[in-house]
Design brief:
heterodimer; A: alpha/beta; Rossmann fold; 3 domains; six-stranded mixed beta sheet; 27% strand; B: mainly alpha; two-stranded antiparallel sheet; 19 helices; 4 strands; 2% strand; globular
Chain lengths: 504, 359
Amino acid sequence: MTGELLTMTGIVKEFPGVRALDGVDLDVRAGEVHCLLGQNGAGKSTLIKVLSGSHHPDAGEIRWQGELVTLSTPTAAMKRGIATIYQELDLVDGLSVAENIFLGHERASAGFLHRGDENAEARRLLARLGHQNIPATREVGRLSAAGKQIVSMARALSHETKLLIMDEPSAVLAHDEVDNLFRVIRDLTASGVAIVYISHRLEEIRAIGDRVTVLKDGRTVATGLPARTTPTADVVSLMTGRSIEYAFPPRTVGPEDAAEAAPVLAVEHLTLSGAFSDVSFSVRAGEIVGIAGLVGAGRSEVLETVYGARRRTAGTVTVDGKALPAGNVTAAVRAGVGLAPEERKSQALLLGESVVRNVSLASLSRFSRGGWMNRRREHADTSRATESLHVRPEDPTRAARTLSGGNQQKVVLARWLLGGSRVLLLDEPTRGVDVGARSEIYALIRRLADEGLAVLLVSSEVPEVLGLSDRVLVMREGAMIHESAATALDEAHVLDMIMEGSAA
Amino acid sequence: MSDQVSEPVAPAQGLGADVTADEQARVERVGEEQAGSTSTRDAVRHNTVLASLTRNIGLVIVLLVLAVVGSLSSDNFLTSDNIRNILVSSSVIGVVTVGMTFVIIGGGIDLSVGALVALASVWATTVATQDYGPAVMVLCALLVGTGAGLVNGVLIAYGRLVPFIATLAMLVSARGLAAKMANNRTQIVESPSIKKIATTDVLGIPLLVVMLAVVVTAGWVLLNRTTFGRRTFAIGGNAEAARLAGIDVRRHTALLYVLSGLCCGIAAVMLIARTTTGSSTHGNLYELDAIAAVIIGGTLLSGGRGTIIGSFLGVLVFTTITNIFILNNLATEVQNIAKGLIIVAAVLLQGRTSREAAT
């Protein structure tokens, strides 16, 4: 047990229908920056949640400073000295910096706050992080993302933290702010705090990390790799080469056929300031075009801007030769564009309403005359759409909330199928869909394309983009950096491009 | 006896030959809770009056209890005159409540309804307006209500004001404007045709009650049989999903407040006829009565779910309580305490059902 602060062995965590963690090992030493690498769905978030006490492992053991422990609640983890800084910073905007730092463990006697004490201690913690410039009494809502992150770290330190877990801390930061983050991390490790650092960006891991653990499909595939010297190719090949193979439907359109068809969706010099700029591409009828890139590269924003849910700052979007007005979803829908958004439950579904009402939502005028609903036809037509997409259970009067993720996605697809859409925009089409149901969704998407729809697809999972698409666009930091036929690319090549941009 | 009390419900339920899917969905969920989910229970069947009654069973029971209490405590309760009384005093607030139901299902709130009734009543009864005759007076009340509702709607939907704030501002300024127009005096109505609205019977039913029945029925149809109603549920249930499905959420939101304003205009005409006056103090606290009726009627304050029939039953409960207290010469203070308790009880009951819905 020489300096091993934390040892996790054989951690297993199952959720209904999916084994998120399938034997993960991780050991962390005091004072090191331990990097956790893995693709989306590899189990990083689940592992963090086990470590921070939010999830209970189904098997495996956790040793903390050599002693066998169970982390039953987040509070229990925090008492041992394990603190987590999540990607969505969990701060209360309306409270001051000091109030946030001491939220839940206020300095008080008999219920009366010692505000002076709290402010002084907050100032001391901020100074330790090198940020005396943040006033302890400032309202947190008025701080920048970087400032909030510092407050989160100060909060973690207010608990005598020995292990700090940081989930993609650089994702919310501008470039120069990352340097400052690294300086703070070095100060912390110098004082003996261990950091578990999660990031997709290899160059950061090289800059700040000591050792690397790689996860793939819920398993540890490599641990204790030296962060600075392991070749990129080795890391990438560890992350890929998956053991679960999805069945992708065969491509039916050859690249030559596709080139001849006229584009249904044409996007030129599309720009949304702050997100992406000068993006041009087109999608033809019967074609599936996939956009690969990291979260934050601007992929979803492209989709939402094409759809009009965000107002573009420059560029044009045309459907069947007709230009769409900026920032107008209603016009886009009328022109035959449909979106299956990333957050199905909050952005697409009326969870308490029946499947029928969810499917007909975008084409109500089709079932009405003078505003009067023809509910018999609505029921008949929506049922036909859900049947053709094999929505299970078959009863279309069930509430949408009772359906599985895959079937909810089919409901959204049925909505656009019924609406007679010409262009389908899919944002993370298999997010929240059981592994078993994915192949079915893939086959469905291909079938819709074969029926003449133009499909534009965004996914964080590179194999999904490569396996499903005819053509692939690669985005990094708001720019389109590559376009080619899907068959001309492999996973390692794409990962290389989106992570480091050193397109070989 | 309860048959008589709930008589005006009949036309609305008669139209409800089949019930909206969400009502059925709730019935279905309750069924799952109690009987476990068998496939026949899961299916949402086209049910009739039964489902509608089940949905509002709590209110129906409250009404029955009130009827028993009323008839035990006063011999005059179960007379046809008294039942007329209850229905007539439900008429004005009932019409306002229909508009409020739409606004709340659509995810908003309208605090200005009482003030709009007052403003419309004053504007329609100024000497100048009365000179043009009864038709113009009615038109004036409707236009004032609709116009003020449009201002609410535009401020909320396009000006991005919080509904609570926008309609609170309208409440204050509409009452102020009404008081200024009337010079703080009560304006007497001369037109016999207007007065007749409150004194005419149609087939033995007071015209005011018929008007209420027409508005409730129209509201029910609009909510359950048209695209407008469907979109109202969608926007209140998940505004983002509605927007991304191509629905013009802002326009629709504005229209909800216009509709509420129109209902206030109609209510103003009825109130002018009943009181034969226009006054800036008319419709005092209608906003609270209407919101309370909507809430105990089972509509979620957060939007997306609710029924016109429930709101209507809510109005009946409140007017029946008032009626019983008046018959027994009890103080209004006690009456208000009872109303408060009923609101709490109803919302607790509703909280339980919505938790069931969430599971």
